[in-house]
Amino acid sequence: MLSKEQAYAIIDQVVQAAEGVDVRVMVQASGSGLTRFANSEIHQNVFEDSVQVNVNLSQGKKRINFSTAILDEAGLKETVREMVQNLEFLPEGQEEPPLVSEPLLMEIVDFNDELDAACDVYKRAKLVKQCLDMLTPEYKAFGAVSYDTIQMAFGNSKGIKRFARVNSANFSALIADEQGGTGYAEITSNTPQDFDVIAAFERAYDKAKMNQNPMQIEPGAYTVILEQAAVGDILQYMSFIGFSGKSLQNQASFLTGKLGEKVFDEQLTIVDDHTNPNTVSLPFDFEGTPRQKVTIIEKGVAKDVVHDMASAQAAGVESTGHSVNMPHFGGIPLNIVVEGGDKTLEDIVKETDDGVLITRFHYMNPVNPREAMLTALTRDGVFKIKDGKIVGAIKNMRFTDSMLRALNSIEAISSDRVRTRSFFGNYYVPAMKIKDFRFTGKTNA
Hints:
Blueprint: H1 4-17, E1 22-38, E2 41-59, E3 62-68, H2 73-87, E4 105-110, H3 113-118, H4 121-132, E5 139-156, E6 161-177, E7 182-189, H5 197-210, E8 220-226, H6 228-242, H7 245-249, E9 270-272, E10 294-298, E11 301-302, H8 309-315, E12 336-338, H9 345-350, E13 354-368, E14 373-386, E15 389-393, E16 397-402, H10 403-406, E17 410-421, E18 426-442
């Protein structure tokens, strides 16, 4: 993997070659180890090391973006000069925001050496074997252990430099029997102490054993308990469609015209916080702006949204440091932290007289962003709760509901929170009990 000094040298070469125009350069180096298993056998054990240089060139109202894997100085400079020439022939767009000019230097190394040692190729395979040895013959397991190291360096023609190095591990397991009963669990962590693969596998196995002879229930409104993975699924889509300044300016966000108003249940507080130790600590964004902690929802009240430089300029505010180099999205919150409640998930289940427990969702899509209306299918474990106990499995259902409505019907939020994967990094979220959650369709499985 490139050293910090090598990454900075690439940035300097690009800036020098593009003299006369504004330049932003991001050098991303990543190493990814993957041990994948299917039908209870390891079938892939690989490692990939890659480097990509992302460049933004702008002059007045003209802008061009490109990415390259060319790293030698001559080839890189030739590519940049060609792009500078192409800039002249592009049509004008909106005025580009000014380059970040301060602070000159930001560097962070949040790299866990113990995690690095615990996730080498041999130890990943050994973990998988320990898991597979638990299974009885009628069950098959599918999933992966992955380990990622990410190194990011940023610079621009104002002379700023940014550097971050982080690592994380992820494990997912789907366990199924011959009749189609499945169970799923996933964990992500940046410390070996929290990366308990065996416990996660056991949770998936237990769910697969419970997910037998599922009953079918009719579409309608039910009290549901969404486990943390399901909550993470919902919040990721809400972040895309509603928590950015761009979506607010386009009047596509469900928070349009609602800042300062109560929009969700008062139990709900959502903060984008890269300083929380349970998220990925990246203190700057893809434009080099220092990342701010942003309270999006406070006790149900819509407080703020996140910005990249373009959406901040349009709103007459400062960027919050949430660019992901995708102007059509504007800023995106990457480090969502939801405040926990005062009861464990186990206690919430015990206190539920009649409800439905949901493991996770898939095929989620927005139906109406202005209403925060989402739709998705349940997956890998839907269970009937009666008098505080899980009494049976339920066939998968489709929900279609407005989160403006559903998240105003929160009955409980769990004290136990887990990390769930997001676009870049992870969220840290609790489980939620919601009244009158609307299922609109049923399946045969």
